[in-house]
């Protein structure tokens, strides 16, 4: 394991703590670089000749490249070690931002996004690093800390972009490249260089050809989560513009910025203060059921009249539900993958998310563009209800194995299996 002696449990001693802290700072700096660019990318691309279709193509091209590359990068990290692959991915992101800053026409912008997508193994490999360096009983908490890094980055990034715009339209892009360079430095200095995998004293095992039935079920739950997330982010600005009247005026860009800041603050606060105690008190599976139910309830209530409170209350429930689900499901997938398949499992999860990122936003925009606002809202709730039903069915199929209120954050791994931008 990374940072542990052969035969010792992962995450013991200072090496495990150093790996988890290093992964946190890498994820924070890497996502901060992207979060600085996100608010200005559509306008930057339009300035270089892209129309609305071209801006949509940027998102789809990045997601398609990421879906193809993420599982391959995960397998490479399993084979050659986490740190070399992570450094290569971070370097690819930094180069893509520099290419974007130097772009003089839209094809260069598109090329920079493709490069970033093909090297977008940063997050799944960082999750695999943490899984290698953390015992099973602590993985949900460790992944929750990584989720806090996402929340902090997407709270600070837009503010940094607004400040950098005073120096010119390319300044936020260069700032993003600077943050990406800091993530490379953090990975090089803070992460140990040892390759993952069982120590020499571990008995030889025949590698499995798949994640197994439990892993596939967890990926299905993550697919419901990712579908809801992409459906929300792809359609909410258009939906709110047409359905919401906070303060009695039309919903605009300033209002959207306030809502996104509220979402970032909610995610950061919930992850830091409530997620861990809630999972420990309820148990993992009841917490997952509650998170899917809270998100679905928020989705159903979107667009109801009531000014800012009527808008922010549903968004709050959606944000809390989605915030809780990702680290808990990532921890479950990590356990079910086993120590030799962490990178591949997280890469598969990233590929599922990227595929849905290609499909969901255009479909949401198509519905809203035709005035089907209620259909968009109910389909958002439907993805979360589907996840709720799948998790409930799994609970019914395995009576007696559910976590009680006083259990730890993760249930015991299945006996059959004993032995993871943007």
What does this structure look like?
It is a single chain. This protein has 422 residues and is an all-alpha fold. The protein contains 15 helices and no strands. α1 (13-37) packs antiparallel against α8 (171-190) and α9 runs antiparallel to α13. The model is unreliable at 1-12, 194-209 and 399-421 (pLDDT under 50).
Return residue spans where pLDDT drops below 50 for at least 5 consecutive residues.
1-12, 194-209, 399-421
Distance between the termini: 27 Å
Cα-based radius of gyration, to the nearest Å: 21 Å
- The fold-level CATH name of the largest domain is Growth Hormone, Chain: A
Helix content: over 70%
- Kindly provide the name of the CATH class of the largest domain: Mainly Alpha
CATH homologous superfamily label of the largest domain: MFS general substrate transporter like domains
The whole-number mean of residue pLDDT values reads 75
Structural class: mainly alpha
Q: Please name the CATH architecture of the largest domain.
A: Up-down Bundle
Instruction: Give the count of structural domains.
Output: 2
H-E string: HHHHHHHHHHHHHHH
**What's the tally of helices?**
15
